[in-house]
Design goal:
- It is an enzyme of class 5 (isomerase).
- Its main location: mitochondrion.
- This is Enoyl-CoA delta isomerase 2.
- Keywords: Acetylation, Isomerase, Mitochondrion, Peroxisome, Phosphoprotein, Transit peptide.
- With 390 residues, the protein is of the alpha/beta class.
- The protein has 2 domains: 78 residues, Acyl-CoA Binding Protein (Up-down Bundle), CATH 1.20.80; 251 residues, Alpha-Beta Complex (2-enoyl-CoA Hydratase, Chain A, domain 1), CATH 3.90.226.
- Helix content is 50%, strand content 10%.
- The strands form 2 sheets. It has a 7-stranded mixed β-sheet, with helices on both faces. Strands 6-8-9 form a 3-stranded mixed β-sheet.
- Strand 4, helix 7 and strand 5 form a beta-alpha-beta unit.
- Helix 3 packs across helix 4, helix 7 runs antiparallel to helix 13 and helix 9 packs across helix 10.
- The relative contact order is 0.09.
- The chain binds ligand LQSD347O.
- Ligand LQSD347O binds next to helix 6 and helix 7.
Length: 390
């Protein structure tokens, strides 16, 4: 089948994609591709000198169709019509991925194929054991069908800086179209992550506080949207304590494996803030409103065992065997048929997507107001003065 695809690709898909020859001028940092970025990406494909291979071509085809026509809307070709069946399968596997996301993924994928791409923000389809470029605070690798995104700032308990949010968005977009079957988040060192880097808000001049809060709210919304829309199974390997946003996001993960030394803490009230990551919706659904309130309103810290009993964590492992057991299991899962994994996830999650986007938007608006509140500013000052007394 691969041979047939190679022979037939050029005329059939070039027709579908209709490339004119135009030079690309696109912003690689734009997180939502405009129509123009999309058009430019289509043009850029024409300039490729190297055949990207059938798998990538099928992804491009599927993303193009999804971006322009929406979910697959044609009858399934017969089993013997190999090429059209492969194209149909690729398109159909995108399920109800929003057109806008498909457009962005298409732009990212084309961008990753360009020889002239800037290495610092380039997104590449993951190859075996390939380390993705970017800062060292987020390490993205791909091996055995698993793309691993690791928080790598152990001296700061893996606190997430503004640039790390952006890199994670980029890494998720790349992982959504790479060759891996599943995507896994984990932390390097003794913490999974201590959540938002509180200095994101302290290095700000007084006359730009409002603008900083607005920008942070936009970034947060985009960050959480990337998790809501992520099409492949998303797994968290919680190697140690988790605080704030990395906990709230767990409601958007498909499996959460924790070491028995992990803890789960969302001290939003203490910080003069409010929940994000869609937790105001997912946590009451997962654990019931009373337990969700204890965590999200009163900031009760849970042990891994408690988080598992409440349904936030899938399974807890003894620290001594945690890494070995979890990665062995994940490697087995990653060998399952990729399209089937995506489609099952889509079935489980798609009904909720619209609601989750609305919850995310609302939480970000509320948080933007909280960041400007006296309660929040006092909490940040307390954190900074605690540091200065050490
Ligand atoms: C685009 C913006 C989006 C915003 C989204 C909204 C997100 C909200 C949240 O995530 S709320 C949660 C925020 N996190 C916290 O409140 C945790 C703050 N940190 C701590 O309470 C403690 O550091 C600790 C309990 C995590 C660990 O304590 P300890 O074991 O005593 O270690 P240290 O405190 O000495 O930490 C070592 C080193 O790391 C620095 N650090 C740790 N966490 C953070 C952090 N979240 N932000 C900034 N810096 C952090 C800590 O200051 C130490 O640095 P130093 O060695 O002093 O330079």
């Amino acid at each position: 089948m691969a041979g047939r695809l190679t022979r037939r690709w050029s005329p059939s898909l070039l027709q579908v994609l209709r490339f004119p020859v135009v030079q690309l001028h696109m912003s690689r940092t734009a997180m939502r591709a405009s129509e123009k970025d999309f058009e430019n990406a289509r043009n850029q494909l024409k300039l490729l000198t190297k055949d990207p291979g059938n798998e990538v071509k099928l992804k491009l085809y599927a993303l193009y169709k999804q971006a322009t026509e929406g979910p697959c809307n044609t009858p399934k070709p017969s089993m013997l019509d190999f090429i059209n069946k492969a194209k149909w399968d690729a398109w159909n596997a995108l399920g109800s991925l929003p057109k806008e996301t498909a457009r962005q993924n298409y732009v990212d994928l084309v961008s990753s194929l360009s020889p002239s791409s800037e290495s610092s923000s380039q997104v590449k389809p993951a190859a075996a054991n390939e380390k993705q470029p970017g800062s060292e605070n987020i390490i993205v690798t791909s091996q055995d069908g698993i793309t691993k995104i690791m928080f790598n700032r152990p001296s700061k308990k893996n606190a997430i800086t503004t640039s790390m949010y952006k890199e994670i968005i980029h890494a998720l977009k790349a992982a959504s179209t790479d060759n891996s079957a599943i995507t896994v988040f984990t932390g390097n060192g003794d913490y999974y992550s201590s959540g938002n880097d509180l200095t994101n808000f302290t290095d700000v001049s007084p006359n730009s506080i409002e603008e900083t809060a607005k920008n942070a709210s936009i970034l947060l919304r985009e960050f959480v949207d990337a998790f809501i829309d992520f099409p492949k199974p998303l797994v968290a390997v919680i190697n140690g304590p988790a605080v704030g946003i990395v906990v709230t996001l767990l409601g958007l993960f498909d499996a959460v494996y924790a070491s028995d030394k992990a803890t789960f803490h969302t001290p939003f009230s203490e910080l003069g803030q409010s929940p994000e990551g869609c937790a105001s919706y997912t946590f009451p659904k997962i654990m019931g409103p009373a337990k969700a309130a204890e965590m999200l309103i009163f900031g009760k810290k849970l042990t891994a065992g408690e988080a598992c009993a409440q349904g936030l964590v899938t399974e807890v492992f003894p620290e001594s065997t945690f890494q070995k057991e979890v990665w062995t299991r994940l490697k087995t899962y990653a060998k399952l048929p990729t399209n089937s994994l995506r489609i099952s996830k889509e079935l489980i999650r798609s009904n909720e997507k619209e609601k989750l986007h609305a919850v995310n938007a609302e939480e970000c608006t509320v948080l933007q107001g909280r960041w400007l509140s006296e309660e929040c500013m006092n909490a940040l000052m307390n954190f900074m003065s605690r540091k200065s007394k050490l």
